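Per reviewer request, we include the raw input and output of the structure prediction for the construct analysed in the revised manuscript.
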Amino acid sequence: MKFYCGIDLSARDCHVCVIDQQLKIVVQQKLRNELPRICQLLSPYKANLKIVVESTFNWYWLIDGLQAEGFADYSV
């Protein structure tokens, strides 16, 4: 099954939402901007996950970190 993730990235926090192919919300959570915690939250969906990040600035660390952790399908 494919999953889709939207991350609304702010200066200190992010809102993460993951939906499945039927548009059912499987994860909806506000987190501190801590890469290990974000990766841990997304890891169950990693193999079939498309990520979109919304941010006006400060998104490089997140994209670089997700890429380093093997999350390959993302957009900014």
